[in-house]
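Example 3.2
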Amino acid sequence: MSGGQRLEAAARNPGAGTVYAAWERFIGGADDVRGVRPEVAISWHRCREHYRVDPNTTEAPVAVAEVDHTPEHDVVFTELGFRAAAVAHEVAVAGGIVTVADATGRIVGEWGDSATRAVAAGCNLAPWYCWSESATGTNGMGTALESHAPVLIRGPEHWCRAFHDWTCAGVAVRHAVTREPIAVLNVSRWRGELPAAAGAWLSNAATRTQATLRRRARDSGTELVAAYHEARARSTTPLAALDTAGMVVIADDTASVLLGVPASAPAIDPTVRWNPRLPEMISAARYAGRQAARNPDWTGSTELFTHLADEPTPVSIRPVFLSGHLVGTLVRFGIRDGEQVPRAGAPARPRTPPRRVVGTRDNRMVLLPLPEVCFAESDGNDVWLATDQGLLRAAQQGLDKLDDELADAGFLRVHRRYLVNLSRVREVERRLKGELFLVMDDHTDKMVPVSRRNAPAVRRALDI
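Structure, written as tokens:
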């Protein structure tokens, strides 16, 4: 079923009375969400447990955060603005409005019915106000930014009582490499149903924009590989090429060890690039991008702790451009050349680890204490949890995000596809070529592979 079809199917089954009763129970502290769609129940859980949004909020706050705009952002806003303007008349005739917001939920453009826009202004559904979930709870724009699929939020499915008269449908456009949201397109209507074609239109707009981003990412990858080979021919120092998100496109044998990624064929396809999981390296690459946008001749240097190294390694960073647009950086290890890159500031205050992980079964949200989760396995954007209650789909999409949330709660990423609860590792098996496998304490005695790059961290964590 396509994204547009999913929105239309949800719209045909409102169940407003049942949902409102569940909403009243849930804001009162109960976990009973019978009759509520899973994606909405999961959003409510985020609003109550993580964001602590007051359900009596009556208007969106002024947006205070701005995202640094890259060429990808400019492409997305241009395309979404064009598509929104193209259907503005059709949406206006149906009494609706169209909005485009950035990754923080800050509305940057609005089109549609003037009467509805006047009503929307009363709750700050207007440019320069913030509609992220953390600011205004469950809503079309904010919930779409949290989801990898189009979302429809009707009436009392909104977290805040003041928005219960609205129906909204939104879809996020995501970075081709990192899958982080760049922008969100949304259609809203006050006290009425959305146009029948809204779901298909939103999905089509997002799909076309994503295709443009993937094409640009592939072109950028090709240019980075060409720049890498040209630089490699002039020097034998360890070398890698990183895209603007700090992901590795290609690295030689030595650089791949330092970055903790495979030395493999170039990753021109944006979906198969490697995250070096070196926050200082990614921070330095992004700083280089900001500097190079102001001065194309900029080069920089710094020192970084790399994988399997006890001392920091000097690196130099040079930007790479395609048709005047920054596409990434070349990173040389072992040499200093150029302006000193500022070191990252003091580490952020430790976050309080979550007490539970949210899974879904059929039409229910399952709240799992952490000890009941044995391991998590990714399958594309979906994440499956092996638990004492059986195999459940995680509410959170993307293993990277779940890894970040559970990093301080006794979980460890051991493989590109696996995150394990260290307290549920029963045995460690070494094979002839040195590969490690973890025998997990679940009902299937699952054997989880440990990748070469993660083996040192696993040995340290398990003291073996």
